[in-house]
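Hi V.,

Quick status before I head out on leave. The structure for the redesign project is tokenized and pasted below; the design run finished overnight.
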């Protein structure tokens, strides 16, 4: 008599199939988990890069509009640009007033780095003439700033402006602008160096030579 082969799987075959399925499932989960982490890291990197670009562009807009105008702060005439202890403040123009509300075209901008928060702030005063009690419009330019240094270029690199040798009793000296500024910062372990030209310096150069621009 012929013996018929039994149909179905044996217990050993089932156990082997289950083991293979478990291994494949574990490998698949690791792949999907890795893809998810990479996607999250890319999103965070893109967000940080976007913030860096926005910060660079904001400072560029500010410096392009820097003007040699002194500021009257609580009856104290401040130079057009002041750099002291890493804090930069300067006068800028170009404020639009499309509704004719009497908004001043000039304003005072200040950059402040707070190391305890690792944040770079932008402070905006709506008028270059202040009573000393005016509250600025404050916004965070950049977060995660581990190191920060700002200097002026004239053309040498200086950590303070106006220079200590300058006679600030002369009005023209208070109106002088350096040729540019340099910002060196470290964000998430990556170093950046931004250099901005102060275009309106040409106006002062021509004026000091007896000409006009």
């Amino acid at each position: 008599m012929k013996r018929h082969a039994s149909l179905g799987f044996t217990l050993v075959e089932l156990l082997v199939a289950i083991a293979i399925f478990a291994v494949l499932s574990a490998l698949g989960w690791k792949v999907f988990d890795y893809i998810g982490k990479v996607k999250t890291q890319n999103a965070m990197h893109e967000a940080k890069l976007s913030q860096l670009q926005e910060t660079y562009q904001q400072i560029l807009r500010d410096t392009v509009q820097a003007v040699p105008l002194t500021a009257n702060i609580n009856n104290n005439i401040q130079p057009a640009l002041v750099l002291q202890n890493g804090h930069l403040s300067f006068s800028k123009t170009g404020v639009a007033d499309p509704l004719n509300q009497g908004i001043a075209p000039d304003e005072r901008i200040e950059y402040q780095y707070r190391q305890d928060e690792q944040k770079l702030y932008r402070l905006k005063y709506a008028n270059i003439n202040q009573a000393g009690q005016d509250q600025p419009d404050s916004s965070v330019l950049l977060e995660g700033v581990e190191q920060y240094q700002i200097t002026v270029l004239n053309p040498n690199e200086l950590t303070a402006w106006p220079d200590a040798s300058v006679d600030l009793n002369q009005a023209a000296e208070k109106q002088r602008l350096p040729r540019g500024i340099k910002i060196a910062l470290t964000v998430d372990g990556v170093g950046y160096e931004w250099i901005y030209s102060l275009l309106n310096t040409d106006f002062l150069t021509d004026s000091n030579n007896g000409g006009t621009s």
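Above is the designed sequence. Residues 51-197 form a domain with the Pili subunits fold (CATH 3.10.610.10).

G. will cover questions while I'm gone.

Best,
W.
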